[in-house]
Amino acid sequence: MGHTSNRRPFSLTRAVSSIGLAVAFALVAAACSPDIEPVDSDSIAGDPNASVTSEEAALSLKLKKQVTISRRPVLASQTSTTTSAPATTTTVAPNSTHPKAESTDTNLPASGSYIAQRTRMGIGNCPIYPRNNVFHADVRSLPKSSNSDQIIAAMGSAKVRGMTSVVWQGSRSGYPVNVVDSGIDPSVTFVKQGFLLRPESIGSFPMPANPRLEGDPTPAWDQHLLLFDKSTCKSHEMFLVRTPSRSFYRTWEADSAHTLDLTSNAIPNVASTVSAISLLAGLVRYEEVASGSIDHVLTVDFPKVSNRAPVWPAVRTDGQNSDPNAPRMGSWLRLKNVDLSKFGPTARVVIKALQTHGAIIKDSNTSDISINGENDSRWDDADMNTLAALTAADFEVVDPTPMMVSANSYEIR
């Protein structure tokens, strides 16, 4: 306020002359520069794949050098040749709680294939399933199921629930991943849960010093124990586990224990989940989201699963819903286009995966569409909670049969 201005007095004549020169130079530059690309707002409005808003379309003479451009690709199976203008993208700076960047991956599977082009993050030197596994599918070109609308209507107003860092009544939701090495870690024998005079052994498994169960820090809900052996690439998964301090026999107990070979496309007949799908198959891990891309199919739990037979890739069910339109165990959901401005940067990584890979109903729960995620204290709850803006109506059910090689295998085309 105490500053003395050194500006010259305003001159209307000089201002008009300056504006005229600026306009002239701009017109010359527009005619000569190869870097200027007009945007056709009509073609954008007619293209459902364009990720450009009407406001962005108005910026029809922006220099390419001044913006970063991207657009959702037209799928190989689509016949439309409409050309969409590029949209600007926002890059999220890396930090400890948010992903490095929103992925702008536009890689599509090879023609006639549904195998995602990006490679899924493994554990140690182990991949999680072969590349041609159903949980590595890109579902963008799969057809919508003929009864999708009826199934979605039967799902009602269920909302999406993401991962959380919140500890409620001593427990946090999600599945902890215990990485073990059978060449180093000692084996521990588990016995069948119960009150038998002679406890029945159900197997021995490598165990870390302080294993974490579902519900950690306090075991809760189904009390799953997930042990991933990085030396064999096998997942040991237990259900209703009791630690020695809580065991009648003062030893490790479990209602069931199963070893799944994650180097194989063989479908297990039974596992620690009701669908026989591995806990790891569609688990969203913190490191994946932090990297900016989830490169696999997700799994979700839903409370109103049909009592009819499961559908591929699920092989079992505990569904009790008699509604003929209720989703079956194994039903595959694909997220439609949504307004991304409602969601945080971490939630957008999940949204992209739901659109590219979709989510399979793998288990039953008591409420909502719950994404299966890792038990981790680093989740950004304010960000993850924005996923609650999604409801069942934002999804459609896809038909996976075009990519299925056999109903008895996880292999896809």
Give an account of the 3D structure.
This protein has two domains: 12-88, no CATH class; 148-403, no CATH class. Helix content is 14%, strand content 16%. It contains seven helices and 17 strands. The chain has helices at 12-32, 41-45, 54-57, 148-154, 286-291, 345-356, 381-384; strands spanning 69-70, 87-88, 160-161, 171-172, 178-180, 187-192, 201-206, 215-217, 225-229, 234-239, 252-254, 256-261, 298-302, 332-335, 359-364, 369-371, 395-397.
Give me the secondary-structure topology:
Layout: H1 12-32, H2 41-45, H3 54-57, E1 69-70, E2 87-88, H4 148-154, E3 160-161, E4 171-172, E5 178-180, E6 187-192, E7 201-206, E8 215-217, E9 225-229, E10 234-239, E11 252-254, E12 256-261, H5 286-291, E13 298-302, E14 332-335, H6 345-356, E15 359-364, E16 369-371, H7 381-384, E17 395-397
Parallel strand pairs: 3-16, 5-9, 6-11, 13-15
Antiparallel strand pairs: 1-2, 4-8, 6-7, 9-10, 10-12, 13-16, 14-15, 14-17
Quick take:
The protein is of the alpha/beta class and 413 residues long.
Helix content: 10-25%
Global Rg: 26 Å
What does the overall shape look like? globular
Estimate what percentage of residues fall within beta strands.
15-25%
